[in-house]
Amino acid sequence: MLKTALVLGATGLVGQQLIAQLCSDSRYKSIVCLVRKPLGYELAFSHDDKLQPIVIDFAALQDYQGYFGVDHVYVCLGSTIKKAGNRKAFRKVDFEYIHVAAQLARAQHVQSFVWISSVGANAQSSLFYLRVKGELENAIFKLSGLEHASAVRPSLLLGNRKEHRLAEKIGGLLAGLLSPLFVGPFAKYKPIQAAEVATKMIQLQVF
């Protein structure tokens, strides 16, 4: 039986790759994506046979519960403290929105739920970013009734971003030079292409 999917965060680095892969995946018949603003022309119309973009207010995400009545939910939401403006705004996107999405997915009895966390996520971390990611993992994995919840924990994401992030660009260049050192227990810290993360998310869903 063909599957249906819901994607949150379709316009981000991983989200765009995920949409492209889902739309070309013969196992899916439809993909709904909840977005803050209309999709760009290229993304919206290159896959218009399967893709249904819905512009919503994420601050009122609970009002869109009906869209969670799908087989698979993918959450690619994520920000940075710099982009969000402050820690509170960052936590709203990277914890609250995703946690609400998990609760809505549970209420609709989805088959599986996958979201993007981070390598090093730890609720006890001294680093705010990793602490929030870890707290979210704990909160979602403790949700009774949410079957097959999985977190993808990438390191530095590589790919073509719309916005310019100097630190990530420098990090990507250094990572390329240091890549041979990311072996054994350090392999998880190796930077990864956004397309690979998208592929991993699909592999974690239940078919």
TrEMBL record:
<protein>
    <submittedName>
        <fullName>NAD(P)H-binding protein</fullName>
    </submittedName>
</protein>
<feature type="domain" description="NAD(P)-binding">
    <location>
        <begin position="9"/>
        <end position="140"/>
    </location>
</feature>
<dbReference type="InterPro" id="IPR016040">
    <property type="entry name" value="NAD(P)-bd_dom"/>
</dbReference>
<dbReference type="Pfam" id="PF13460">
    <property type="entry name" value="NAD_binding_10"/>
</dbReference>
<dbReference type="InterPro" id="IPR036291">
    <property type="entry name" value="NAD(P)-bd_dom_sf"/>
</dbReference>
